[in-house]
């Protein structure tokens, strides 16, 4: 049971850990790269890329967990 809890915590750290780094960086970049008080196209790319990357990590972790159950 402890091993499975450790695995789950490991996958949660892989999925949500980068988000703890990206959100402060996003706020800093938002302050630097403003055009006329609004976000630029850079932020559209940044948020889309981050979302897709997080979803990819989630699918990767879920596929590994499902393979481990077999």
Automatic annotation (TrEMBL):
Swiss-Prot/TrEMBL keywords: Membrane, Transmembrane, Transmembrane helix
Source superkingdom: Bacteria
Keyword match Transmembrane helix: yes
Annotated transmembrane regions: 9-29, 49-66
Name the UniProt record assigns to this protein: VirQ
Species of provenance: Agrobacterium tumefaciens str. B6
